[in-house]
Every structure is written in structure tokens, then in C-alpha cells.
Design a protein that fits this description.
Helix content: under 10%
Strand order of the largest sheet: 1-4-5-9-8
Strand content: over 45%
Structural class: mainly beta
Radius of gyration: 14 Å
Distance between the termini: 29 Å
Order of helices and strands: EEHEEEEEEEE
Shape: globular
Length: 135
Amino acid sequence: MKQSLPGIKNISILPCAELPLHAMAKCMSNIPVGINCDASNLDIYPECSLEVESKYTNGDYFENLSLEFTSTTRIPKNPKMAFVITDIEGHNYLIGTKERPFPVIEYTREISGSRNIYDIKVTFSGKRALIPCAI
């Protein structure tokens, strides 16, 4: 089953090392996940897309997430980075955990030869790929 999150208002990044332990397990247990560190907002263009696909594999469900957006900010790959998505209703969602696996960041292209505009694709997989959170 595929789901999408329309209306992404903001995307922020923060190091995975600063996230709380076991965020995915907390989400699955309906325990609120709070983030108590500074997240850096990215300059994004409004054409963002986020899709989550659930698959039943080896007797359990896993989610594969794909986030695509255009930004003027180049995201560092070290340290490993997590993402906080804010939708138009003000709900926050975490992509990434302190433990493995980490989100994978891929630069798909530089737009029109410019060195400061990038198409970025982020993929993440886990039992819960999109974790509701509070900042």
C-alpha cells in the first residue's frame, strides 16, 4: 500500500546522533517522540513529494520512504543526517533514527548548470519510516 504526504511546508535537518534512542520503537508503542535539539531549516522549493510504501516481508510489515525535493542547501553526508518534515497542518514527522539504518541522501541532479540548486532524494526503510514527533 502506498501513501503520500501532500503539502510539505518545511524540511529541517539534524544529526542522527542527537536523536533520542529507540524513536522507531517508541512510535510503534504509541509513546510520543520528542526532539530536544536544534534543527536547521532547508531552503526548499514548493514541489516536494513524500511517499511511503508498506510491504509485508518475512512475516512482518516494513515501510520504504522516498522524499524528493529541490533545495539550495547541500546536505552533508557525514555525520549521518535525519530529517524533520512539517506539513501544512503543522504536524511534524521524523525521518531517521539514532540507530541504523540511517536515511540515504542522493543528489539526483544540479538544476540548469547552477552550483547551488539541487534535486535531492532521501530514502529510508524500517518498521516505521515516518515517525510523528514534537520539536
